[in-house]
Every structure is written in C-alpha cells, then in structure tokens.
Amino acid sequence: MSTWRPISRTPLWQRLLPEWLHGLVALAFQLAVIGAIGLLGMAFFYFMLAMRFDMDEVAKLPAGTTYYDRDGAEITAPGGGGRKLVKREDIPQFLVNSLRAREDARFFEHSGVDIRGMARATIRNLKDRDFTQGASTLTMQLARNSFKMKQKSLHRKFLEIALTLRVEARYSKDEILTHYLNRIYFGAGADGVEQAAQTYFGKSTRDLNEGECAMIVGIIRGPHIFSPFRNLKAAIEQRDQTLNRLIAMGLIDEAHRDRIMAQPVKLVSEEQRETQTSYALQAVRRELDGILEADDIRLGGLKVDTTLNAAWQNRLEVELTHAVEDLEHEKGWPHETEADHVSGTPPSYLQYAAVTTDTQTGATLALIGGRNYSDSRFDRTRSSRDLGSAFEPFVAAAAAERGKLVLPGKPVQTGRQIGPAEVERLAKRCGIEGPFLQTEDLFRGSVAATPLEMSVGLATLGNQGKRAKPYLIKRVRDATGEVIYTAKPVLSAALSPAAAIDATSVLQRSGGTRCFTGATGSERDAWTLRLGPNGATAIWLGFDKPTVIAREPRLKSLLDEFVKRLGNN
Q1: What is the dihedral of CA 329, 331, 337, 341, to 10 degrees?
Q2: Is residue 425 part of a domain?
Q3: How far apart (Å, rounded) are the C-alpha atoms in residues 330 and 530?
Q4: Do strands 483-486 and 473-477 pair parallel, antiparallel, or not at all (unpaired)?
C-alpha cells in the first residue's frame, strides 16, 4: 500500500541553496527586475529624445569657416572657395583602411556602438583612474558633430548612443564614412578631406598615395598639433603610427610599410597654399587652431569674430605702399622694385610689416606681414630685426621704474644709471624677448625684436604699465549661432604707471599721438612707433636679406611724412 505525499511547491533553487541565501537571492532577483525595467525605461526615454532630431542633417554639410572684422563685416578671402565634397568612389581604399586602423577597427562589423571597444576602454579607464581611453566609433563621432553635442556628461553620451543607432539605421556604412570625411576639420583652414588633400598635397583625394592617406588620417586626432605645415615631424610620426596599426590588423606587412615610409613627403610649397589668403587671416587661422579643442574644431560652419579693424588695416597698407613706392621712384634707387620682380622667385624688393595693438585689451587691430602676400607668405610680424634707437623707450622705462632721470635722446646716459641687467628685465616684462647684450651697446639698441613684440611693448607703455596678451579672435560661433568661445583679455603689471608715462616722453608729439621714426646705425632696418589714443602701432621697413635701405636723413624724412598722413587717430 503506497503512502501519499504532497507535492512540494518549494522552488528548486530554494531546495538547492542553503536557507540563509534565500533572502539574498530573492532580493537580487527583485533588483535585477527593477534594473531591467529601469534600463528599458531609460532606453525608451533616449529613443524618444533622439526621434526629435532630423536625420537629414547628417547629410547636410555645413559651410566653411567665415571670418568677420570687429564691426561684423565679413572678411572676404580670394581662393577660399568653401567646402569641397567627395563621393565614396573618390576615396582610396587605403585611406578607408587607414581610417579604420586609427579610429574604428570594427567599423564594418558593429552597429554603430562598439560594445567590445567600450568594455575595453572602461577597463583601461578604471585601471588608469582617469578617462584616458575613448570608445567613440566613426558613427558616434559623426552623430556628435552633426548635432553639435559638445558637453561631456552621461546624458550627452546616452543621447549620442541613441542618435548613433538612428544614423546607422538611416545610412549605409559607405554613406557614413563619406559624410564623416566630408564634415571634419583637418587644420590649416581645410574643411573636409578634399580641401585637406588640396591644401597639404595639392591634389584631389582620389590621387593621394598611400603615405599621404596615412598622414591625412593621422591629422584627425590633432588638426593643430599634427598639421605637417606646423610640425612635419609630428605628422610623420602619426603617419607611421597609422601604418603600424595597419600591420596589427593584418592589412599590410612590414615590407609594405617600409616602402611607404621610404617615399618622400611632398607638401605643397608656400606659394601654392590656397586656403591662407592674407597675412591677417593666416594669423587668425593659426590662433583658431590653437584655442579650440579637437572635438570643437571639427565642427563645420564656424563663424569667427576677429579683433581686426579692416578700415585701419587698409589705411595702413595704402599709406605704407605709397611711402615705399615714393622711395623706390627716386632717381638712382639701387634695388629691385616690386614692378621689376619676376613671379615665382623669392622677393628681393623693399618689404614692410606692421602690427597695431589695442592698448587696453591687447586685441590686434591690424596685422600686415609683408608687402605682397602672393609673392611671399612669410609673416614678417614674427621675424626679429635690429631695433637701434627704437629701443630707447624701454631704456627710459627701466630708468624711470628705478626712480632715475630719463634723458630724451640720450639713451646711453639714461641706461648707465641702472645697467644692462635692469634694462633687460624691464624690456622682457614689456614683451621684448631678446636676446640682450650685457654691455652699454644694449642702450644703443643692440637688440632684436619682432614688430608684434614692439607693438605689445609700446601698448604696455600706453596702458599705464599694464601688459595685455595679444589676441586676434574675440568670439567663435558654431553653425547655429551658439557662442562656443569668447576671448577674455589677460593683463599683467609690467611697470608702474608713472614710469610708463615717463618712458613715452622720449617719443615725439604729433597731434594726439606720440611717435618715433628712424633707422638702425647700419641703415638696414627702419622703424616707426606710433602710440595713439586707441592703439599702439609698430612698423618695420627693410629687406628680407639685410641690406642698406637708404641714407638715414632721407629715410627718416620719408617716415615722418608717412606718420603725418596717418593723422591722429
């Protein structure tokens, strides 16, 4: 006779586990259910949020960077023909492989979000206790750049992932790749890969060789620091890192890499660079590359508000050109003139450079790096030349700062009261870098400086001894008009207000301005310093290869006439 036993309703897991674990397992299960519901809810929330974005924007390429003067007028740039687009068939396969190797090895395998890569980056970041590794795929970068998501937060990251999945659902891999390369910034004013190929190598994307493809990709991570125009060694290192990644992925072997590395790097010459169309814009673009982080600078359609006063810059250029031409037209002028110059050869005619700095803020109001940008792209505002008697205001400033008597027109006697070391110290505080002699020849101006340094130094004397850091960009806006950068004037005390006023006493009064005109003892360099109510202007005149310009009395007379024509503003 069988004995009936009731069927146990205790779950199997409870029968298998010790009783003391039952509560913990039940709690863990409940938390897992709550977590799953929470994740689903969060996923739904970000999916709905991502639905508000127009996916057509991914294919709409923004315009190139636009520059404006301080009054809001657009600075036109001949030859700056805007963003040039490529099609997928124009992109060499080696460039595609290089891009995968450096930016997204599993691009054609994942669905926009590389879970494996994110896990690997998370583990590395935990080990480093810092965000040293990123896990952004090409699609994530495209989504971030297309919809201008710059804030670093978990909310932005989750939204970025949701948008990435939508981009992957809308566009093919080839379309994503093409939109990405057409959209990002490559430095030196080049928006998109086609402009980058033309800017750096003077050829279309389809014609890039394997070494050029690898170098172009290497630039992406740092458009400023890895630009071959700025640092060829760093650009080559990035190319080589890309090639080594291709080896690691099994796409090339070491022999192939060595053949590519043996190829000479042929960049376009200074005279062929079309994206930099004036000395001033060249300087602005250089500053733009430096002030924006890589994620921001890749955004297209930037609007850059500069500090340049276009009217004053034009006036300086016109009057300087007239003054130089008057000198060249004199009977017996022994040098080449601009009219005599043969195109394509280094210019040997008389040059000039000028910088005007706002005395109170340090904003650059005008920048002229040479006489003819089409003949020479060399920016002479950054080139040191002998100062001669133009150094006297800083000798006077040093003496006044130490409570000594300033003797206008007698810099040696003024300087002897304090010695060369004190003059050097004060000049450096005003922005003159040197090198300096440690003899009395320093008081006679045996020191070199750039026009930019002289303009900043003169502005310091005109600003009661407060030195302002020079800058050319006051604001940067993105394609939507949102301000993503604003300059903040940076001032530091260089000398006392009383000493600054005493130093300007060695300059000649001309209406509402104080001026200096004169040549060095060798007559190879001539300077004009002009401290007006609104700005400090330093102008250099001379030849690229130091040569006697003209005899000092005639040269000074010419410069005095030039200053009078500028007036008192």
Answers
A1: 120
A2: yes
A3: 26
A4: antiparallel
Computed over every residue of the chain, the mean pLDDT equals 84
Query: Given pLDDT bands bounded at 50, 70 and 90, which one contains residue 131?
Result: very low
pLDDT at residue 271 in the model:
56
The pLDDT assigned to 289 comes to 79
Indicate if 389 and 240 belong to the same structural domain: no
Residues 232 and 370 in one domain: no
Confidence band, pLDDT 50/70/90 cuts, at residue 78 = very low
Residue with tokens 């002028």: 333
Q: Do 553 and 461 fall into the same domain?
A: yes
Look at residue 165 and tell me whether its pLDDT is greater than 80.
Answer: yes
Q: Which is it for strands 525-531 and 364-368: parallel, antiparallel or unpaired?
A: unpaired
Count of H-run helices and E-run strands, the chain: 20, 14
Task: Spell out the long-range contacts of 326-335 with Cβ–Cβ below 8 A and sequence spacing 24 or more.
Answer: 326/558, 327/549, 327/550, 327/554, 327/555, 327/558, 335/543, 335/547
Which domain covers residue 511, as residue numbers? 312-331+347-566
93 Cβ contact list (under 8 Å, min separation 6): none
Q: Which residues have a Cβ under 8 Å from the Cβ of 149 and sit 6 or more positions away?
A: 143, 156, 159, 160
Same-domain check for residues 319 and 420? yes
Within a domain: 339: no
d(CA 455, CA 464): 15
DSSP one-letter string for 267-298: PPPGGG--S--SHHHHHHHHHHHHHS-HHHHT
Among 232, 253, 276, the domain-final residue is: 276
- The domain tally of the chain equals 2
| pTM, full prediction | 0.68
Q: Tell whether 238 and 317 lie within a shared domain.
A: no
Amino acid letter for position 45: F
CATH code at position 94: 1.10.3810.10
Confidence (pLDDT) at 120: 67
The tokens for 517 are 């005109």
CA distance 7 to 428: 95
Backbone dihedral angles phi then psi of residue 277, each to the nearest 5 degrees:
-110, 5
Last residue of a domain, one of 257, 276, 295: 276
Structural contact between residues 140 and 56, judged by C-beta atoms closer than 8 angstroms: no
The verdict on whether omega for the bond into residue 18 sits within 30 degrees of 0, i.e. cis, is no
What's the rounded mean pLDDT across residues 41-66? 72
The rounded distance, in Å, linking the Cα atoms of 536 and 515 is: 10
Query: Distances in Å between the alpha carbon of 131 and those of 116, 150, 221, 412?
Result: 17, 16, 16, 58
Task: Give percent of the chain above pLDDT 70.
Answer: 82
Joined together, the tokens standing for residue 222 give 């740092």
∠ CA 316-317-318, rounded to 5°? 95
CA–CA distance, 368 with 353 (Å, rounded to integer): 5
What pLDDT, on a 0 to 100 scale, did the predictor assign at position 564?
81
Q: Which two tokens stand for residue 562?
A: 């030039």
